[in-house]
Structures are given as C-alpha cells and as structure tokens.
C-alpha cells in the first residue's frame, strides 16, 4: 500500500434539524457490523425542556474529530482509479459514525446531561433559568469540550437568545413546539394513495405525538389502512381525520 494517501473530507455539518451527508464510498461499510447503539429521537431529547423556564443556547462541534487507530485506517481504504485513499478520522457516512460520536459525547458530557444540556451527535443545547445561569452553564460546557480537545464551530454558536431551532423544534422560554418547516411538511402532504404513503404520514405525525391531543384516537382508522388484509381506500372518515390532523399542525 505504498500508494496509499491519507484523506480527510471537508466538514459538512447538517443545518439545524437537517441531516449529515455521506462522505464515504459504499464499499467501505461492507466489512463492518452495525453497532447496537440507538440514537434517541429528537422528540425525546427536547422533552427535557417541556417543564422548564429556561433560556436556550446552541453549540456545534466538528464531526471529523474522532481519530482512527493507525492499524484500522487501512480498513477505510478505497480505490479512486489512480490511487488508494484512506481516512485518518472517522468520516460521515461510515455506518457506525453517528453511534460512535454520540456515545463519545455522552461520555464527555455525562454529568452535565439533563442538568444543563442535551446532545444529539455534534449539536449541543444548553439552558439556564436566568442570564447568569445560562452564561455559567455555557462556560462549563465549553470548558468540557476543550478539555477533551474537541473543536467548537464558533460560527454556529447561538447564545442569550429567546428562541432557537433544534432538531426540528422551536424552543423558547417555557415553550417547545415543532418548527414551521416540519409543520408545513405535514400540512402540504398530499392525500395518501398507497399503504406506503399512509405509513409515511403516520410516521410524520407520530414524531410530534406529544403535541397532538388525542392522537391515538385519530390514528385508529389510519392504522387499519396499513393492513394487507384491507383494501386500501380512503373514505370520508379517513379524509376528515387527515384534514383535522393537518389543521392541528397549522395552528402551531
């Protein structure tokens, strides 16, 4: 492997509430087993803020910060047509990248999680009951990040704000609600024409189930349409349910 070149792609952070893009060829993932480490949903993470009067702040750390052991670098090698390239740090798109980074962040912030911050991969939400506590907690988290030699993306820092977007939610003083972008996705969704369509709609609305009163009653008829034993056909009942659910999101 004399022609092996170390390769580090430029960081490509997700926008707040978006997703990371893959920077690794598909064949690199084939030899690896998926880690049994599940990421918490955005809904369960922001739920921590539902019962607090807190001012939010936001930090983003660089994703490309977990070094790969020298003996493991060759496992990430791929051929470009003229040379072999390998990664020196854990890339986006590697099947276990999110789980590894999330686990690392939970270990680094362990005693601060739930007390003054929550973390989702490389995004950290910090809070405080007052400006003074807000600033103190922000300082603690930044110090912890620096202690473990992680680099913060300064350009993405948001502090001392009354409202912030995080994982598809708008978080403000004593209020958490789905972002307008997510709500519009439900409102503008076309009437389902297949079981896959109805499954997709149920998944979208279920993500915000804590914000929709009586959702389980609404969904009973929609769940019925997922069954292969039932002919897929929207009746006036289902159309009315879809309309009411969209109307509910429009009120947000």
TrEMBL record:
It holds the Pfam family RVT_1. Residues 1-171 form the Reverse transcriptase domain. InterPro entries: DNA/RNA_pol_sf, Rev_trsase/Diguanyl_cyclase, RT_dom, Viral_Replic_Matur_Polypro. Residues 1-25 are annotated as: Disordered. SUPFAM superfamilies: DNA/RNA polymerases. PROSITE patterns: RT_POL (PS50878). This is Reverse transcriptase domain-containing protein.
